[in-house]
Write a structure and sequence with these properties.
Helix content: 40-55%
Number of domains: 3
CATH architecture of the largest domain: 3-Layer(aba) Sandwich
Mean pLDDT: 92
CATH class of the largest domain: Alpha Beta
Radius of gyration: 26 Å
Number of helices: 15
Largest sheet: 7 strands, mixed
Low-confidence stretches: none
Distance between the termini: 45 Å
Strand content: 15-25%
Number of strands: 16
Shape: elongated
C-alpha cells in the first residue's frame, strides 16, 4: 500500500511558494496553516483556485485548514497537533515553512521535528526557485531545483486576480504579431508622425469604446509626405486638408497608442520565442477579489516572477503629468501582485525623462524608458534575464 503524502503549508501574503512547492511534490492531501488576516484576504482561496487551475486539486484530495494566532507559538502548536492526532493512516509529511511569520515557522518546525521520521521540512529562499531542506538536516544543506514555471494566468490567480478578457487574448496577440511591420514603421518614423498622431488622438482618444465612428476632420496645415503615407496606409481619404474614414474600434485603439504597445510587445514576445522569458500577454484586463479592475498593457513571466509594462505615447515633454500618474498607478498594482525589485517598466515616446520623476519611479521599483531606450528594449531585457 502506497503511503499517503501530506503537504503542510504556512499561508502569508506571498502565495507563490505554496503553489510551486505543491507542483514540485504533487501531494495527496493539503494542510493549510492560516491566520485571521489571511482569511480576510482570502489567501487560501487564491491558493486553492490556482491549484485547481493547474490540475493539482481534484475533488478526491483532502484539504484541512487551521486558523492560528500568529503571535502565539502555543496556539500554533496545539492546532497543528490537533490535525496530526486525527491522522489514522501511515503518512509522510512535507512541511513548507516559507510563509507565515517567524513564530509560526518556529512553532511548526518544532511540532514536526518532534515527529522525526517521515518528515521533510523545506524552505524557499527569497527570489529563488529552489527548495532548501532544513530537516532532516544534512551537511551541506540539501537543495532541490524547482523546475515548475507559472504562466501569467496562474500567477495572477495566486494573488486573487482573474483575467476578464481571457477569451480574446489570443486574438489580441495574433493581431499584434500580424501588424509587427506596421508598428515598427510607425516607431521608426514617430518623430515625423507625432503631429498627425497627436491630431488623431485629440479627435479619437475618447472614442476608444465605439465599435465604429465616422471620422471627418480638417487638419490644421498641409500634410508632410510621410504623414500622407501613414494616412494612406490606414485607408483615410484625403482631400486637401480634409481627412475622412469610417473607422473601426480596433483601428481607433491602434492609432491612439495601440501601435506603440504592439511594437513593445513584439520585442518582448521575440524573447519568449527564444525561451528567455516564460510567457507574455498584451492587453490584459484583470479583476481582483474586491471587484476592482486594472489594465495591463503588457505582462510577462520569468522564473515565477511577474513583470508588467505600461506604454505611453505623445504627452508633454515639459509636464510629463501623464507619466507621473502612471507611476502611482503601477506602483499600487506592483504592491498587489507581489514583492520584487524593478518589475514594472513604463515605456514612453519621450526623448528625455524629468530627473525627479525618474527618481520617484525608482522608489516604487519602476523604470521609465525614453524612446531611444525603448528602441533597445529587446537587448536590455536579454542582458537582464539571460
Amino acid at each position: 500500500m502506497t503511503m499517503k503524502n501530506i503537504l503542510v503549508s504556512l499561508v502569508s501574503e506571498q502565495t507563490i511558494p505554496n503553489i510551486i512547492v505543491a507542483a514540485h511534490y504533487r501531494p495527496d492531501d493539503f494542510w493549510f496553516v492560516s491566520t485571521e488576516r489571511m482569511e480576510k484576504e482570502r489567501r487560501v482561496a487564491c491558493i486553492e483556485n490556482t491549484l485547481k487551475l493547474k490540475g493539482l486539486l481534484p475533488a478526491s484530495k483532502n484539504i484541512q485548514k487551521v486558523i492560528v494566532d500568529q503571535d502565539s507559538p502555543s496556539d500554533c502548536m496545539e492546532k497543528i497537533e490537533g490535525l496530526i492526532e486525527k491522522v489514522e493512516d501511515e503518512v509522510e509529511y512535507v512541511v513548507n515553512i516559507t510563509g507565515g511569520n517567524k513564530l509560526m515557522a518556529l512553532a511548526t518546525y518544532e511540532v514536526f521535528r518532534e515527529i522525526g521520521q517521515k518528515v521533510v521540512i523545506d524552505y524557499i529562499p527569497l527570489g529563488k526557485n529552489e527548495l532548501v531542506q532544513i530537516f532532516p538536516r544534512k551537511k551541506p544543506l540539501k537543495t532541490s531545483v524547482i523546475e515548475e514555471r507559472l504562466n501569467l494566468e496562474e500567477y495572477l490567480c495566486c494573488y486573487g486576480f482573474s483575467i476578464q478578457n481571457k477569451n480574446s487574448l489570443e486574438q489580441i496577440r495574433t493581431n499584434a504579431i500580424n501588424r509587427r511591420s506596421t508598428s515598427h514603421w510607425m516607431f521608426e518614423n514617430y518623430v515625423q508622425l507625432k503631429g498627425v498622431l497627436g491630431f488623431i488622438y485629440k479627435h479619437l482618444g475618447n472614442k476608444r469604446n465605439k465599435n465604429k465612428y465616422s471620422f471627418l476632420v480638417t487638419f490644421d496645415r498641409d500634410f508632410a509626405i510621410i504623414e500622407r503615407e501613414m494616412l494612406n496606409k490606414f485607408g483615410f481619404e484625403i482631400k486637401d486638408r480634409l481627412i475622412r474614414k469610417a473607422i473601426t474600434k480596433d483601428e481607433i485603439v491602434y492609432l491612439t497608442g495601440g501601435w506603440f504597445e504592439e511594437f513593445v510587445f513584439n520585442g518582448v514576445y521575440d524573447i519568449v520565442q527564444n525561451n528567455i522569458l516564460d510567457d507574455a500577454m498584451i492587453g490584459v484586463k484583470i479583476e481582483g477579489l474586491s471587484g476592482s479592475s486594472n489594465d495591463l498593457d503588457i505582462a510577462f513571466m520569468k522564473d515565477n516572477s511577474f513583470y508588467h509594462v505600461e506604454c505611453k505615447t505623445l504627452g508633454n515633454e515639459e509636464d510629463q503629468g501623464i507619466i507621473r500618474d502612471e507611476v502611482y498607478k503601477k506602483g499600487a498594482i506592483s504592491i498587489l501582485l507581489g514583492k520584487g525589485e524593478k518589475r514594472t517598466m513604463i515605456c514612453t515616446t519621450q526623448s528625455q525623462i524629468n530627473e525627479s520623476l525618474a527618481n520617484r519611479a525608482q522608489d516604487y521599483g519602476i523604470e521609465i524608458l525614453t524612446i531611444e531606450q525603448v528602441r533597445n528594449l529587446k537587448n536590455r531585457l536579454k542582458e537582464r534575464f539571460v
